[in-house]
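Severity: low
Component: inverse-folding endpoint
Summary: output formatting inconsistent between runs
Steps to reproduce: submit the following C-alpha cells with default settings.
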C-alpha cells in the first residue's frame, strides 16, 4: 500500500515517524529515508537509536534548494540516487513479515528535479499488503497520486513562521 502525506501544513514527517514507530513495535522491518534534510531533527535522531529502524539520509549538509550551487545540486543528486537504490533494494528483499519504507520529502525532491520520477514509480511497484510505502513532501504529480492508496493533505491555516518565529527545538525540529 502507498500512503502520501503532502501539503504546506505541519506534520508530514511527524506522521511518517509515528507510523515507523508503530510498524517497528509490531515487528516490521522499517527503512526511513530522508531527502533534502540532514537527519538532524529530533524525531530522526531518536529513530536512529532504535535497532528496529534503519535511517538513511544525505551525508553532506546542503543549504535549502534555492541557495544550492549547481555543484551542490549535482552532489545531492548523486547521494539521492544512492538513497533510491537502497530503497529499491529494501522493497525487493523477500524476507517474510511486514515492511515499511518511508521516503520523507521525496515529493519535494521530485518537484525540484533532484530525482527521477521513474525511479520512485519503480519503487512504488513493490507495494502490497505486506509492504507499505510512505511519501511526504509537496505537490505530488498526478502519476504519483494515481499510485496511492491513502492520500492525506496537510493544509496550513496558521503557522508561527508567518510572524517571523523560526523552527523551535522539540516542536518543529
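Observed output (run 2 of 3):
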Amino acid at each position: 500500500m502507498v500512503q502520501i502525506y503532502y501539503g504546506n501544513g505541519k506534520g508530514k514527517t511527524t506522521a511518517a515517524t509515528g507510523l515507523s514507530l508503530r510498524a517497528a513495535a509490531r515487528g516490521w522491518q522499517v527503512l526511513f529515508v530522508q531527502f533534502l534534510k540532514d537527519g538532524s531533527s529530533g524525531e530522526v535522531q531518536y529513530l536512529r537509536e532504535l535497532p528496529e529502524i534503519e535511517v538513511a539520509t544525505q551525508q553532506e549538509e546542503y543549504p535549502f534548494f534555492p541557495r544550492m550551487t549547481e555543484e551542490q545540486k549535482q552532489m545531492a543528486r548523486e547521494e539521492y540516487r544512492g538513497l533510491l537504490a537502497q530503497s529499491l533494494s529494501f522493497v525487493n528483499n523477500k524476507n517474510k513479515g511486514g515492511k515499511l519504507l518511508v521516503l520523507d520529502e521525496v515529493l519535494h525532491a521530485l518537484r525540484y528535479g533532484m530525482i527521477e520520477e521513474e525511479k520512485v514509480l519503480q519503487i512504488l511497484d513493490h507495494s502490497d499488503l505486506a509492504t507499505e510505502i510512505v511519501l511526504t513532501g509537496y505537490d505530488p504529480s498526478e502519476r504519483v497520486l494515481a499510485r496511492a492508496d491513502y492520500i492525506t493533505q496537510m493544509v496550513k491555516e496558521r503557522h508561527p513562521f508567518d510572524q517571523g518565529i523560526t523552527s523551535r527545538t522539540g516542536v518543529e525540529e
